[in-house]
Automatic annotation (TrEMBL):
It holds the Pfam family PALP. The keyword Cytoplasm does not apply. Residues 34-344 form the Tryptophan synthase beta chain-like PALP domain. GO terms for molecular function: lyase activity. It comes from the Bacteria. The keyword Membrane does not apply. Its cofactor is pyridoxal 5'-phosphate. This is PLP-dependent lyase/thiolase.
Amino acid sequence: MFGLEVFTNTAANARPHTFATETRDPLRAHRSLPGYAPTPLRDSPTLAQRLGVGRVLVKDESERLGLPSFKILGASWASLLEVQRAWCTPSDEPVTLSSVIARLDRTTGRGLVAATDGNHGRGVARMAALLGLSATILVPAGTARSRIEAIASEHAEVHVVDGTYDEAVLASAQLADDDHLVVSDTSWEGYENAPRAVIDGYSTMFHEIDDATAAADLPAPDVVALQAGVGAFAAAALRHYRAAGPGGPTTVIVEPSGAACLMASARAGVPSKVPGPHTSSMAGLNCGLPSLLAWPVVYGYTDVFVAVPDSCAEDAMRALAVAGVTAGESGAAGLAGLLALVDSGTSRLAGLTPDSCVLVVNTEGATDPENYRRVVASA
């Protein structure tokens, strides 16, 4: 039975890592997509009281560009850049959906490929449809039927791999050829362009947070909680809040107890694999191996790693529901880590004080509706 695990990273800031400079180019591209609007930044006194802090800000990604997850941000930017690089005539024009469509010389027989636990693959499938391409999405065994059906609803061909997420990634890589581009959110040796673009794509969320806090005269966060699978989302946030120089908020990464590959890697000082099966209900975080691209940023700028069992994620889902936020299992994970620290009497490890301003990100809505109804019934 898994329980709460905590690891304080003494290497944080001791190994600063230079990553590509953050720009607002992805935000410009996202604004070109149908239905773009900034997602809400919610100020939650209910959650602040539960955590014993001054303020909790919730970036609510339960609906983003018509999908129930933030993942479309990385999937869209990476898809546009990969298609432009491989199949478009050269141009100095800024990258937008219309600019890529206009320069795409052929769509027949071409497609995008991705491995996913649900949300990233659906985002890639949506982009393929917008670009007039086919989509082949690979999911690991045990993926909820509702998530498979949601991906298929984007006109994608979905294949279930008899294995873990990491094995689905390996299988997706074998499908790459001149007419099929793999758009993965994790990297491996020799494959970095797309996952780097995924990380860049997530930056839109943090620019929106900056704009929203400035407009409402809200404080910058003192503590940032980030759920993580392979580490791409976390790397985007860490770059935004910590890589610019000294200072910045205390950073907390939260993973499922049975798939805490980033914590294991931090303990070892090198990327390390956590063997499967990875069976947490936090499906989007069920990853056994860090992204080699994201790892140096994660290791260099994360203060505390927390691993939580599914029961903690369910507690956080209910707390968010009471606060008026619909959060799936992975979406609630960042808050779950902080709540677990508070309940265990170790909140000081995350820098939580009565004056703290805390940022959590609800990265997904109820992507498994049946389980969501079960969990929040007692909220």
